[in-house]
Amino acid sequence: MGGPGSPLVPGVAATTGPVRIVGAGLLGASVGLGLRRSGVEVTLADPSPTAVALARDVGAGRPAADGDAGPALVVVAAPPDVTAGVVAAELVAHPSAVVTDVASVKGQVLATLRTVGADLTRYVGSHPMAGRERTGPAAALPDLFAGRPWVIVDHGDQGNAPRTDAVLAVRNLAVDLGAVPVTLDAATHDQAVAIVSHLPQLVASLVAARLRDAPPEALELAGQGLRDVTRIAASDPQLWTAILAANAAAVRTGLSALRDDLDVVLDALGRVPSPAGGGAPEGVLSALARTLAAGNDGVARVPGKHGGQRRRYAQVSVLVPDTPGSLAALLTQVGETGVNLEDLAIEHAAGRPVGIADVSVLPEAAARLETELTARGWTVVR
User: Fold this and answer.
1) Average per-residue pLDDT for the chain
2) Which of 19, 260, 337, 374 is least surrounded by CB atoms within 10 angstroms?
3) Best CA proximity match to 358, nearest among 350, 367, 346, 348
């Protein structure tokens, strides 16, 4: 975690300032924090003076002012339903600047800019695949983009294609913030995020909505599985309404396919007899099994932590007292054993002053870690 050459360690930025950030929310303020850490001059603009003041106070830059030198790069971090208008205005207001945006939907923005005849030679759409459930400048982090993909959109307009230096400026921005640049066209990007981001958001929200009328005794049984599935359902409804509307066609395609799969499950469950009714009709249980197995196949395709094929890890589960310093002590002692921690999850036991830390390690290291931790006084749950 960190170290020489790590994106988590600030260094000399390739991005040339001044950089003007329009939109002082989570993404805009996080861009500002990351650039300021490397010494890049950043100015901030937002319809909300309060947002600008708060972003300034957390160190994301200073408020834009009349008389400022023209920016070399403008980053538009506005909601997707207004992004195109803001980008068009910034292209006109700053005729020598490269302009990018970080909206999570690219096709609609690009189509609108083409319609209004914007100078697309200086515009390069982009999208960092990073975020948090919390919003606003107070939630901003300078390392929000570290290790995350940052899509750079190739709009390829004949005679109006982005200049090479404009693409390089946005690529430098991504790298300076610790992200990994990925080049896609707008349509491919929008279809991809519908599958890996927008559809999961909707499904998480739909599952979480079922909890509104759940009886208290059911909620008291909630475990880590429910928390994992519903975590992103705490996201900002207004922002996500704009995102889903901007990518409606791709999201609808994904939802339609999901509905077909759900119909298969509903049909199978509807044909499972009551406990007194004997065995299930032929094919019913296999339909359920195929659905669950397909989920296994999908999870297996999610890239591993360093990209490439997902690896299987062994979990060593340890009881951790819910007291200050206990988790830190556990992680320190895991490191002292010489075993690399591949992943970590915490599950809190309802009504008990302990949690269960699931430490993921390479399978060949699990037995040694269990032995070492037991010898050090930890309770390993087998």
Assistant:
1) 89
2) 260
3) 346
